[in-house]
Amino acid sequence: MIKKTPRVIMIAACLMSIALMTACDNKQATDLSNEEAQQIVEEAAEDVEEAEDEINETVDDIDEAANEVIDAVSGDLDISGSWQDEVSQRACMDAVKNSDGSYDIKVSWGGSAFETSIWEIHGTYDSASGMIAYEDGAYSVHTYDEDGNETISGEELTKGAFMKEGDKLRWQDSKNSEDGMFVKIPDDGSDEVSESGSDDYISTLPDYIYIGDDPIMSAVTQYLIVEYKGNYSPCDVSIPCPVIVDKDETDSNDIKVWGNFWLFNYMMDGDVLVSESGGSYPGLMHLKSTDNGYEVTDFEVVADGSDSDESARKIFGDRYDKYIQSNADEEADQKIRTELISDYVKGHGLYFTKYQDYGQDPVELPQ
Predict the structure, then answer these.
(1) Residues in contact with 197: Cβ distance below 8 Å, sequence separation at least 6, in sequence order
(2) Residue 104: exposed, middle, or buried by beta-carbon count in 10 A (0-12, 13-18, 19+)?
């Protein structure tokens, strides 16, 4: 806290002296009566009082700003729960608080659909510094082949820190060249709307986050969840499945992505994710490149009903035949869907082994 009194007294005294000198100058060194002198002193005192009030207000503003800066980088913060990296949109973090106040933290950073880097970190949050520092993070690379067989390699110890920045966490690690900036995903105690679009149902599963290496896919999947999850009944998790027909990246301010964009909503049933609802949104997405990745700026959706075919021909143009062929290739579509669900399950260390559509046999996830 800045001490006000010495500064105020010093500045007030200076102002009093200046006021008296100015008054004398204005009288051009003539003799002053007692009444005139008293009036000058009273006016100077009023000026000093006003200046003192202004100084106090300024000092209060400085104190408030300083406290805000301190609060932003220190103070209490419960990091338990699920977090998403808002910069790369390829990393997620889960933190569990132990009875002794320490945290067990798992960070998953997607390199591709078949490779994920994983950090397992143990540390204690220091409210004075606003940090969790560690020197024994367990790093490993998890690779999966087409049959779902897992290979673990590159195991080593790393050091780094999580640093409080307001309600976010900046992450630096000796093994990762990029900083992570994690934002917390609303948990059971949040006042925000649940993933299903209703605040009557709260899922215990983490939200879906794309962890692959395609930033366009990251923007597309996030857009589908944000725009369409509220159209359906409550669920445990919504997982998109964009089936891309073609892309045009020649203009960074208007990247075009044609496809059939699916969103599936699942409920837990033992080790099975059961699809309860969902829908397809064929059309053309427009994106632009930003400093933080890609952003969907517009979505031309194929019309429903009798106008569907005419609308699809207009939107897909000379890609119409390719769009029809893509819709007919159910095996390829299911492969994409299975990979995206598998990435979600593995990225969060979940126990699901299958997913299932109504009236269909369960589909095994790669293990």
Answers:
(1) 229, 230, 231, 232, 234
(2) middle
pLDDT along the chain (367 residues), means of 10: 49 55 51 69 73 71 59 72 73 86 86 72 90 93 68 92 88 86 66 42 81 90 92 90 95 95 92 91 94 91 89 95 92 93 90 90 89
Residue 196: burial class (beta carbons within 10 Å; 0-12, 13-18, 19+): buried
User: Per-residue pLDDT tens for 204-254?
Assistant: 788 898 988 899 999 999 999 999 988 888 899 999 999 999 999 999 999
Alpha helices in 1-125 (DSSP H): 5-26, 34-73
Cα–Cα distance measured from residue 266 to residue 284, given in angstroms and rounded to the nearest whole number: 26
Which structure tokens are listed for 4? 């006000």
Distance (Å) of CA 355 to CA 239, 261, 273, 351 = 12, 19, 4, 12
Kindly report the pTM of this predicted structure. 0.51
Query: Taking the CB of residue 332, how many other CB atoms lie within 10 A of it?
Result: 12
Q: Which helix (H) or strand (E) is 241 found in, with range? A: strand 237-248
* Closest listed residue to residue 312, CA positions, set 298, 304, 322, 302: 302
Three-state SS string across 151-208, please?
EEEEEEEEEEEEEEECCEEEEEECCEEEEEEEEECCCCCCCCCCCCCCCCCCCCCCCC
Over residues 36-49, the pLDDT tens digits come to 767 776 777 777 77
- Whether 97 and 122 have beta carbons less than 8 Å apart is answered as no
Phi, psi of 231 (to 5 degrees): -80, -5
Number of H helices, E strands in the chain: 6, 14
- 125, 129, 124, 123: which is closest to 74 by C-alpha? 129
Note whether 82 and 92 are within 8 A (CB).
yes
Determine which helix (DSSP H) or strand (DSSP E) holds 106, and give its type and residue range.
strand 102-112
Q: Which has the closest alpha carbon to 209: 315, 350, 73?
A: 350
Pairing state of beta strands 131-144 and 354-356?
A: unpaired
Q: What's the pLDDT tens digit per position in 72-112?
A: 555 778 888 888 777 665 678 888 889 888 999 998 876 55
